[in-house]
């Protein structure tokens, strides 16, 4: 425990080629007693080198970088440091980008023009193996796509509710409490969703559901 009485300090790196944005974000991180800014990189190669040197717990990564994209950097970083939590800042990722992110171990998508409080909360609660996609990004992506592709799997109303909570990054315990069902029943719905979507993990299921436009704006119980 630190001298400030903070039990868990998080080391955070910023990867963005926009110097002003990166400096403002770094300054904001420096004002948080439980967050330690360990450096800034402006591209993929710099990000990989920074993470090998500074070993951050969390990386805030812009998607658009001059020598590649944020997923390129994330994949290289996670190869050598799989426990690193990486949050991608972007505007409106395509379903293909979401699917690639789900398989890469990314922890979340946030809009680059979103609030600082949301970013700080996501940094503090980011978990490896759980991808959080900000609702506004899902909404933008749905509006940008055409009609639902033919042959989409038929999900029940309850499966859609569970799927929506999965997409928000909640765990089985939270989902079961939210829906008023047992954890055993909730796990059964998750298994059914994975089978119908041909997915091997919840992250892959969410990415597939996004591609097929199965994540509606809201559902009734």
From TrEMBL:
Q: Which InterPro entries match?
A: CheY-like_superfamily, NreC/VraR/RcsB-like_REC, Sig_transdc_resp-reg_C-effctor, Sig_transdc_resp-reg_receiver, Tscrpt_reg_LuxR_C, WalR-like
Q: Which residues carry this modification: 4-aspartylphosphate?
A: 62
Q: Which residues form the HTH luxR-type domain?
A: 148-213
What region holds the Response regulatory domain?
11-127
Per UniProt, which keywords does this protein have? DNA-binding, Phosphoprotein
Q: Which Gene3D superfamilies match?
A: 3.40.50.2300
Q: Please identify the protein, giving its name as recorded.
A: Response regulator transcription factor
Q: Which organism is it from?
A: Arthrobacter sulfonylureivorans
